[in-house]
Amino acid sequence: MDATALNYFSEHTDRVTTDRDRDAGGRARNARPRDALGRPLPYGAVGEERAPEGIVREPRRALAEAQELLDAGRPFHAHEVLEDAWKSAPEAERQLWRGLAQLAVGLTHAARGNARGAAVLLERGVGTVEAYAAAPPHGIDVAGLVHWGRVLATRARAGDLDAATVPRLTGGPRRVEG
Questions:
Q1: Domain containing 66 — which CATH number?
Q2: What pLDDT digit, counting tens, does each position of 1-42 carry?
Q3: What's this model's pTM, rounded to 2 decimal places?
Q4: How many Cα atoms sit within 13 Å of 128 on the Cβ side?
């Protein structure tokens, strides 16, 4: 490698690694502001308040916070809460929380008008949470979420995102007709 190429590489490698948002442990953190649906905004713009990342919450608190965010039309932010729960859950529940996060991302895609992304993530989430239907922990309405996710995924595949409803994570889901 000649001196010019080495200099270019060195300059750009340093810029890439030092300009990235990182936490104290060196893990990537995106401090860029986001809108209500999680889309990145330019640095310096005023965005939506975000759920803090890396917070370990009791399962019922995580579910309550995620439900509040879903009800407020902020499924991307609900996904962040559910993702934290997934990462901190005991091994036996990890896939359940992952599936809940996938359902929230599917709803995010629906709200953004991305029918294909909505269908794919909703179907993936349904397939992941369905294994917990026989004995769902923490009062999670797995059967209701599976029904909701399948109906909404079918509608999304047909291009119908106007009927996207907010699911109930626990205790008596809001059903969609199917």
A1: 1.10.3450.10
A2: 555 544 444 454 443 344 556 667 766 556 788 887 888 888
A3: 0.77
A4: 20
